[in-house]
What we know:
Blueprint: E1 9-13, E2 18-21, H1 23-28, H2 51-64, E3 68-76, E4 79-92, E5 95-105, H3 106-121, H4 140-149, H5 155-162, H6 166-179, H7 188-197, E6 213-216
Antiparallel strand pairs: 1-2, 1-5, 3-4, 3-6, 4-5
Helix pairs in contact: 4-6, 5-6
Amino acid sequence: MLEHSPHPAGLKSKDGIFAFANKAYRDLVNAPCDIEGLTDSDLPCDTAQFASYFVQQDRQAILENKTIVTIDVHKYAHGFDAYTFEKRPVIINGEPWGIQFSATNLRELVNLASFAEIMALGSTNNSFSTIKPECMRLTPSQEIVLFWLLRGRQTKQIAQLIHRTPKAVEKQIANLISRFSDVGVSNRASLIEYARCNGWLSVIPEQLFKTPASIVVQ
């Protein structure tokens, strides 16, 4: 089933050793067909430098016995890109064996999530005027802060994600509220509500693609 998935997917032991990876994943990281027995550090891809992070994330999923989600930005075989990875614990005979992983391109995932949320919102909220995102120019710092705000992150979490101080993040949030004040935004809650109703969920900041990273987001 995993072999024929259009999404990169595979299986790794709790020690980070590949038991299987489908063609989509092998193509993504330029891995050989006989990937079984290799680790991330063995792969001819820039992701190799994050091998120890991946093992920590896998063990977190196993220890907590839950699926974790990461955002991974790396120079893959086709160039710089961002993917979300879901890592699910695999239990065999009652014992933790490793994880099953699957990846989705972040642009694809954001567009799908945005569409679903916009449909769920419907037309119940008419308190804001509708202005297309491209007509509202934001600075790169404002875009990245808004991106994480729309995904439920709090100030301290955003600060860690973008390597800034909480005070700097609060300043950007205040700037965003001021930037959107003409359309009825007056606080953090109304900023998030307005942005969700007006297309900002589908905006992926270019800043997100500039630095290789592997971040647990759920």
